[in-house]
């Protein structure tokens, strides 16, 4: 039996069920595997009533995330998603299935373009690129449904690999509220802490601008460049 990346917890007092997604989505293959998705659905449908989904994941298999997203969207009860620390990449897609999405005040969400590994000639590379474009369009559907944001803006955010803190996730519509402590939540827009967003593209460009100064600026000594490049490796 393959190691599961999810776990169901049932509160015996009130019967409430909690799904915990912790770690990489699908440590082993899910796409093309009939057992793992069927097991997840069986466990999801093993009970009734509303469920809570806690997410702390860097992402993983986009096809696994897509199936989990669809299963949660089709679930008859309400689905409250709570982002514990991180909902990145494919995990952010699953988060979009929440009837209500709540972020920890110290949590982060990240969206970016899908990636793959391809081997072959130029035709194979072209097909791989076309496949990634289609996958991106499908991911954007989940973000668009949840946020109501235009697809062009969503695409730009994905291109830049965008990271949101709790306030920014709410501001952009990726989340509905911020968790403020045990048993307390604030799901009213406009009352959250100031939103902050940054992108890998912007950070990279900023670092490069410091490493490679403009012609009019003083050149950086070789030893300083080596030191800065050493910092980039960590």
UniProtKB/TrEMBL annotation:
Q: Know the name of this protein?
A: ATP-dependent Clp protease proteolytic subunit
Which domain of life does the UniProt lineage start with?
Bacteria
The UniProt entry's sequence similarity note says:
Belongs to the peptidase S14 family.
GO cellular component annotations, sorted alphabetically?
endopeptidase Clp complex
CDD domains, A to Z: S14_ClpP_1
Q: Which GO terms describe its molecular function?
A: ATP-dependent peptidase activity; ATPase binding; serine-type endopeptidase activity
User: Which species is listed as the source?
Assistant: Schaedlerella arabinosiphila
Tell me if Protease is a UniProt keyword of this record: yes
* Xref: NCBIfam families: Clp_rel_HeadMat
| UniProt-listed InterPro entries | ClpP, ClpP/crotonase-like_dom_sf, ClpP/TepA
GO BP terms in the entry: protein quality control for misfolded or incompletely synthesized proteins
Q: Which key words tag this protein in UniProt?
A: Cytoplasm, Hydrolase, Protease, Serine protease
